[in-house]
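G.,

No rush on this.
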Amino acid sequence: MQGIAGCFSWMRKSLVVPVLAVIVTVGCGGGGGSKVPPATRVDATGQVEFNGEPVPAGTVTFINKASGAIAVCPISNGTYTSERKKGPVPGPSSVTVVGKESAEGAFLWKGGWPKQVEVDESGFSEDFSIASKDVKPDDGKQLIDD
């Protein structure tokens, strides 16, 4: 019996090197990077107003519902815009608008203003008009304790 057990032990040991060689050679994904093409991104542009006034600074963030791809478009003097390589991915998306008094200034409202949109393959252009009644006022308190 010991001869058979010894044979199986030898076979297990002899398989370790070839199996490791295959794993090292193939690796995760074959070493060539992802074969999935990157998501197509489009331009995004528009105006953002709060109580009828241009929002001085902030962001318009797109999250594609299918892929989870995120695009963040800065707001400057009431206008948000993105470049094609950094814009949103076409399809249904959640948009969150965050407004600020200035780039380093206080928030105009607490949290983000949400909206569901459809990003077209030719690009996205929509103006957002936000009113005080649609958002929580920024009371100066932190949302998360330090």
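When you get to it, here's the other one too:
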Amino acid sequence: MHIDGHFNGDISSKNIVKVGKAGVLKSNVKAEKLIITGKFTGNAECNVIELIDGGEADGKLVSSSLIIDSKSQFQGESLRKQASTASDVKNDKKATEDSVLEKISDLNDDMDPFKKNRTAKLSTTNKKP
């Protein structure tokens, strides 16, 4: 999305939002990347936020990566976006471990010759004529 005029309103995008040199954006933005070369006022939560070529931002910026060149201006609050909390990572790891253990258990059950369905097959194939 490229904005070169005036826009007021919330924006949610999985892609890049760019405020062009003639653009004025008053918004709450959630996007993969926000590039500001015009004027932005509001809150932004993006993986990457760039203020370049004289861009101006006033508000709260939350990002994993914030780039501000020497020609640009920023006034407000900047916070580092957390990829995930330690408890989220621990829960994901536990779910993965449980899934792997369940699959191993299923494989062991399939290969166990003492299970009923295997025993029947073995007894019919092992009989002497």
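Helices lie at 86-111, 116-125. Strands lie at 2-3, 6-8, 11-12, 16-19, 24-36, 39-51, 56-68, 73-80.

Enjoy the weekend,
O.
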